[in-house]
């Protein structure tokens, strides 16, 4: 909450910006790593990893369906709740998730993971 002008130095004046909110854009890097590692562990692990990825992405998709901005935010409060000080549409929040889908597409069309 960047509007907090209180005396607590851990919260006031936006000090918690990098310690408190849930950032959306790193999720894609996690999902890509999950897929990349799963390709090295075999088909069963890859199938399991893809299920996990699509479960996570389904929450982002639900947000896109209800967003008046038609986008994903920069960050959220706990459990994906609205953070009013966040940018409502952040390009890199989209890009890392799209990279994940592209990786899965490459795997499904080539049978291997290549960068």
The main β sheet shows up as: 2 strands, antiparallel
Separation of the first and last Cα atoms? 39 Å
Indicate the multimeric state.
single chain
Mean pLDDT: 87
Computed CA radius of gyration, to the nearest angstrom: 17 Å
Low-confidence stretches are none
Strand order of the largest sheet: 1-2
Helix percent band:
40-55%
**Number of H- or I-type helical stretches:** 3
Overall SS class? mainly alpha
Name the overall outline. elongated
Give a nutshell description of this structure:
This protein is 52% helix and 3% strand.
Q: Main attributes?
A:
elongated, two-stranded antiparallel ribbon, 2 strands, mainly alpha, single chain
Task: Detail the topology: elements first, then pairings.
Layout (H helix, E strand, L loop, with lengths): L21 E2 L2 H16 L1 H24 L8 E2 L14 H20 L5
Helix pairs in contact: 1-2, 1-3
Written description of the protein model:
The chain has three helices and two strands, in the order E-H-H-E-H. By secondary structure, the chain is mainly α. The protein has a two-stranded antiparallel ribbon with strand order 1-2. The protein is elongated. It starts with 21 loop residues before the first strand and ends in a 5-residue tail after the last helix. The chain has helices at residues 26-41, 43-66, 91-110; strands at residues 22-23, 75-76.
């Amino acid at each position: 909450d960047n509007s907090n002008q209180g005396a607590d130095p851990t919260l006031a004046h936006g000090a918690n910006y990098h310690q408190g909110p849930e950032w959306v854009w790193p999720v894609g890097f996690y999902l890509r790593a999950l897929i990349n590692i799963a390709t090295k562990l075999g088909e069963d692990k890859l199938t399991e990893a893809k299920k996990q990825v699509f479960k996570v992405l389904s929450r982002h998709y639900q947000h896109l369906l209800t967003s008046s901005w038609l986008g994903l935010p920069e960050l959220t409060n706990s459990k994906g709740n609205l953070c009013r000080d966040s940018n409502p549409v952040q390009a890199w929040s989209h890009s890392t998730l799209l990279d994940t889908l592209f990786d899965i597409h490459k795997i499904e069309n080539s049978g291997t993971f290549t960068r």
